[in-house]
Amino acid sequence: MNKLATLSAVLAFSAVFAQSFNTQKMNSFMQALDQNRKFMGTVAVAENGKTVYSNAFGYADVENKVKNTPETKFRIGSISKTFTSALVMKAVEENKLKLDDKLSKYYPQIKNADKITLEHLLNHRSGIHNVTALPDYLTWNSKAITPKDMVAKISAAGSDFEPGKTMSYSNSNYVLLSYILESTYGKSYAKLLEEKITKPLGLSNTYFGKTINPSDKEAFSYVFAENFVKDAETDMSVPTGAGAVVSTTGDLLTFATALFNGKVVSATSLEKMMKMTDGYGYGLFSVPFNGLTGYGHTGGIDGFTSALYHFPQNKTTYVMLSNGSAFDNNRIAIAALSAATGKDFDIPTFKSVAVKAEDLSKLTGTYSSTQIPLKIDVRTRDGKLLAQATGQGEFALEAQSATVFTFEAAGIELQFDPSKNEMILVQSGMKIPFTKDKK
Hints:
CATH superfamily of the largest domain: DD-peptidase/beta-lactamase superfamily
CATH topology of the largest domain: Beta-lactamase
Domain Beta-lactamase-related: 30-336
Protein name: Beta-lactamase family protein
Strand order of the largest sheet: 17-16-15-14-22-21-20-19-18
Number of domains: 2
Keywords: Signal
Signal peptide: 1-18
Strand content: 25-35%
Shape: globular
Number of helices: 10
Organism: Marnyiella aurantia
Distance between the termini: 39 Å
Structural class: alpha+beta
């Protein structure tokens, strides 16, 4: 579940792991984020199943000044899909389900149900529209919903393409898998998660979430608007197995180690989970670097963001759980994994400069590109430059110079040339030119 995108990022660094984790520099990196109010949450790394780094930053409860600790529990968003995928594969092993079972067996009212298999749901090739992308989603996601009503919404949303034709990430797939698991076993998703995964592995801090309970070391989530502001809570009946799991970094390190050591599903099932089709397996995507491949998932729900990556060849696992970020979280992953490999990495400085109002006004306007069907509106307010892409929320930009501005949370840099009415969007290694529309 997410307001944020949840696809893989390429991490480039040495394939030879160092003998010791660079704890001092990693702490310096994270303290820079903490001191500049860029990140709240926990980060942990394990090698060969042993934790080599674990630290916490910011507050689980800003209003009451309750600090995050390594034991703080967070909503993990779409990392829940890895648990759900494992539950489905266990059901297959128990001959309760088959990967080629048709969705029509359970929900014939959904378009193309007679063509959609459970495998299509697992690897996002069903074509079923993403229910969390519906225009009215944020008007009902904080209220409890029954499976019947959710299936009605998914059915009404229709299909985006013929099953099996391509891959398109849709939370609807994993919501339906959750319901299928429940009807197959006659038990709630929460109970299945406990019986088949968390209890056998001793994951005492991992469970199906409810209303956030700070007295049980659960974190609230926050969005950054000058200061961290508490975000609304999605009711966990909405995401179910697509995003309703709560956990800690420690439990997720244990889970990943167990999963990739064959202690959750069989070697055959794990191999299927790890087989990538258009970059996605069953509840996993791949994270390649220098000939090695990691597997995992990212997540986002309300103001929570998360990442879990495991590299089987080097037996190294990275976990990040955040309840408030105004930073490109992929840079945290790169720093942590670099610290584990002996590779150097930069500590952010967050320096910004003051730009005169008349210079900012020269940059405002609507910009279009011939490369992507997206317009970006640039405006000023209270002496700051803000931008808003088509169909997305407004975000404030930090000035690095009079013509270069950044938005750290998404790793965006905007480079302006006011004399030519041009702007270049730099993100994830791409440089996309834009031209200001004529009035």
